[in-house]
Structures are given as structure tokens and as C-alpha cells.
Design brief:
Blueprint: H1 2-7, H2 10-15, H3 17-42, H4 47-72, E1 79-85, E2 89-96, E3 106-111, H5 113-116, E4 120-124, E5 127-132, H6 144-150, E6 151-160, H7 165-175, E7 180-184, E8 186-192, E9 202-208, H8 212-228, E10 235-242, H9 252-259, H10 264-267, E11 268-274, E12 290-294, H11 299-308, E13 314-319, H12 322-334, E14 341-346
Parallel strand pairs: 9-10, 9-13, 10-11, 11-12, 13-14
Antiparallel strand pairs: 1-2, 1-7, 2-6, 3-4, 3-8, 5-6
């Protein structure tokens, strides 16, 4: 138990996640076995509680495995398209075996046996789309079963390569012809998505690097809701800080679709900050609602501008590095005494 305590410290867990995970499981099993023999040799009656805990753990794991199998078995199973992207990233697009409903802010666990054996890793769902499956009949649904049969769900992720599984994922994609390959995948989830931004009149979304995958679904949800009259949002500002313009390729197809949406110009503004531009020629603003700047943003100034023209309550969300989250949190907190501001932080950590 002492070994588990030290091995589970945040900096150790993040630096050696794969090693931490397997070692943690083995140590936990060793603890259970040790406690069992301790109770048996001492003749103590608490063994029934230990058995109960093991049974509950086993049932939870069994149910989880059955749900994963149900979600991903049938209709050819869940397939993943891997595409190598600039900036050490991979776009993963899943053709899900069974349809399901996605809401902004959710994440899912991915299992790719050919790359990471039986390990699972959580990633934010950057995009989800539902359409009719052209291979599922003539499209004329008769009952609920037929409706489910013709629905086809795709879920997309952008994964930045670090170490372990993500690095192997990038290497596999880069070595494939044209930087693309298919592989079998099992997806579990999606989970989360409790902090929707639909009830705020003004929404400010900050993203740092790969944190944009959390914010893109919120942008699409708010623009769609504004056009349909189903959200309170009247002003939405997306602030994205990236190191290089090539990182724009991570979300280009989805952002192109958002920019073409009905009434998008009435509600959405986008500010892109390039922290390490190679030259000033890379920095050009496509329009008044999509602007590009060199360097890093002044969070205090940006929030002051939004507070000055605020409509209704303001929701401020951030997903990025710890320093960016700290800056946005501090700026939002210092303005809560003079404005109605809620702060929501999404962290890619365990």
C-alpha cells in the first residue's frame, strides 16, 4: 500500500503512465491477496467483506466488457481510419458499429489491439456525425429496429503524440501509404459532457494546442442552436493558441463546415494566436470574424472586452496547458465581482 501511494503521485503517473497502470494493477492484486492471508491466518471474520469487494469489482469489469462488446460487435465491427497530421498528431475517425448519441464535451476510451494491445486511453471527441448507411437497405424504415439499422455514426478524435501508445499510433500512421491506414478498434463511452454552454448569453472558449478538440463541439452546438433558436447564446468567442499555422490542419474540415453554417457570422468570432510563427507572412486574417495574431493573447484584455459588451450571463471555458488554465481562471475570478461569470475548466489528466 505504501508502494501504491508513492507510485501514484501525479508527476510519476504522468511521466510513466503505461508502467504506472500495470504496476498499479499488480500491486492492488498483491494487496488483496495479502489481506486475504492475513485474515485467514488470524481467524478473523472480515473475509466476507473482502469477498464482497472482489465480487463487486468483478461484476463491474464484466459489465464493462459486455457493454464494449455490444457497442463494437456486429455490422463489421468498429473500424478506425488513422491519418497522420502535421505537428505530430493523428486524426482518428471511427465508423462505429452501433449508433449512439454524442453531446459536446464528452470523451471516449479507445482500444486498438494492433497498436496498444488491451490498454485503453481516453480522448475528447472532437467531432461526431450521424447519417444514413448506404449499405443498410433502401433507407425506408418501418420500425425502430429498421431505423437503427440505417443510422451510421462516425466519431473523430485528434490525438497529439507524446509517449507510449500515442507515439506508436503516430509512427504506424506515418509509415502507412499516404499517411493513412485502417485498423480494428473498440470504443467505450462516451462519458462526461455535463458542462454544456447553451444557457449563457455570452460564451468565451479558450483552447491551447490540442485542447481545441474539447471546444470545437461546443462551437458547432452553439452556432446550430442559435440558428434554430434553441440556445441562449448571442455572442461566442473562440480563442485558440497554437505554435504553428500547420496545426490548423488538425480541425480544418470541421471548421470549414462550421464557418459555412447558417447565421454563423451573427454569433461566432474566432481569434487565432500563433505563438511561434516562422514569418509574418503566415499571419493573415481571412475576415473580420476570423482573425489571426502573432504571439500569445493577453487574457485580461480579452475578457475585459467581452465583459464590456456582455449579453446576459457569461460562460468562460478553457482547455489547454496548466499555465493557460491558471491565467484564464485568475482573469475570470477577478471579474466575478462586477459581472456574472461562470468558469469551467477541462483538464487532460488523471
Amino acid at each position: 500500500m505504501v508502494a501504491i501511494t508513492f507510485q501514484s503521485l501525479s508527476f510519476v503517473r504522468h511521466a510513466f503512465y503505461e508502467t504506472f497502470k500495470y504496476l498499479h494493477i499488480m500491486l492492488a492484486i498483491l494487496v488483496v491477496v495479502g489481506v486475504w492471508y492475513h485474515l485467514k491466518l488470524a481467524g478473523l471474520p472480515q473475509t466476507k467483506f473482502l469477498i464482497g469487494a472482489v465480487v463487486i469489482w468483478g461484476l463491474e469489469r464484466t459489465v464493462r466488457v459486455l457493454i464494449v462488446l455490444y457497442r463494437n460487435i456486429g455490422r463489421g465491427g468498429t473500424k478506425a481510419l488513422l491519418e497522420a497530421l502535421p505537428g505530430n498528431a493523428v486524426r482518428v475517425t471511427l465508423d462505429v458499429a452501433r449508433p449512439w448519441t454524442f453531446t459536446p464535451g464528452q470523451h471516449a476510451y479507445l482500444y486498438m489491439p494492433s497498436i496498444g494491445a488491451f490498454t485503453s486511453h481516453p480522448f475528447s471527441v472532437a467531432w461526431s456525425q450521424e447519417e444514413e448507411d448506404p449499405l443498410a437497405g433502401d433507407g425506408l424504415a418501418i420500425d425502430r429496429k429498421d431505423v437503427l439499422a440505417i443510422r451510421k455514426t462516425t466519431m473523430s478524435f485528434v490525438i497529439r503524440a507524446r509517449t507510449g501508445f500515442t507515439n506508436t499510433l503516430l509512427q504506424k500512421a506515418e509509415k502507412a501509404p499516404e499517411g493513412k491506414m485502417f485498423t480494428r478498434c473498440f470504443v467505450e463511452g462516451p462519458y462526461g459532457g455535463a458542462h454544456l454552454m447553451r444557457s449563457y448569453g455570452t460564451v468565451v472558449l479558450f483552447a491551447g494546442g490540442i485542447g481545441i478538440t474539447h471546444q470545437v463541439p461546443h462551437v458547432r452546438d452553439l452556432v446550430t442552436g442559435y440558428a434554430n433558436g434553441t440556445v441562449a447564446a448571442r455572442k461566442v468567442l473562440l480563442v485558440w493558441i497554437i505554435q504553428s499555422p500547420e496545426h490548423l490542419e488538425w480541425i480544418r474540415p470541421w471548421m470549414t463546415e462550421i464557418l459555412a453554417m447558417d447565421k454563423r457570422r451573427d454569433i461566432l468570432r474566432i481569434m487565432l494566436f500563433i505563438s511561434r510563427p516562422r514569418s509574418t507572412k503566415e499571419i493573415h486574417s481571412p475576415s473580420a470574424t476570423v482573425q489571426m495574431f502573432p504571439g500569445r493573447p493577453n487574457i485580461e484584455t480579452l475578457l475585459d472586452m467581452e465583459v464590456e459588451n456582455q449579453v446576459g450571463a457569461m460562460g468562460v471555458s478553457v482547455c489547454g496547458s496548466g499555465s493557460l488554465s491558471d491565467d484564464v481562471r485568475s482573469a475570470a475570478r477577478s471579474r466575478q465581482h462586477k459581472s456574472n461569470i461562470d468558469f469551467v475548466e477541462e483538464a487532460f489528466t488523471w
